[in-house]
Amino acid sequence: MVCSVIMSVRAFPETRDEPRKRILLIPPLLIIGGLFLAWLHPMLAFIGSVLALAGVLTVFLVGMVFADLWASSRRTKDIIKAREERMRELEDEEQESDVDDPFLDALEEE
Question: Tens digits of per-residue pLDDT, 26-79?
């Protein structure tokens, strides 16, 4: 049996929360941990250097992910703010049109 799943891909993940800044600690921890292992023992120097190199490479990856999440949260907040302003404008127009509507009979019973 073949199971088909429909998935939608969005350019920006929609989130209202700003991204946590803890994600920015990953690269420095990898670099410091790798340098510590390289300094600790000569047998661990290879593993330490690989960890430090991975930390240097994750600087760019984590930075891009953080920037994307930050941009998406800002974009979502702007969309929500614009939607609220439109809804307020529509409500104001409806209230004004109810008062000025010439076809409403004030004496008619409901």
Answer: 899 999 999 999 999 888 899 999 999 999 999 888 888 888 888 888 888 888
Count the residues in the chain: 110
Backbone angles phi and psi of 101, in degrees to 5: -70, 115
The alpha-helical segments, DSSP class H, found in the chain are 26-40, 45-100
pLDDT score for 31: 92
Q: CB burial class (10 A; 0-12, 13-18, 19+) of residue 4?
A: exposed
What CA–CA distances, in Å, run from 28 to 40, 44, 64, 97, 104? 18, 19, 16, 61, 69
Structure letter (DSSP) for residue 13: -
Q: What is the pLDDT of residue 29?
A: 92
* Residues 57-61: contacts with CB under 8 Å, at least 24 apart: 58/26, 58/27, 58/30, 59/27
Closest by CA position to 57, among listed 30, 19, 20: 30
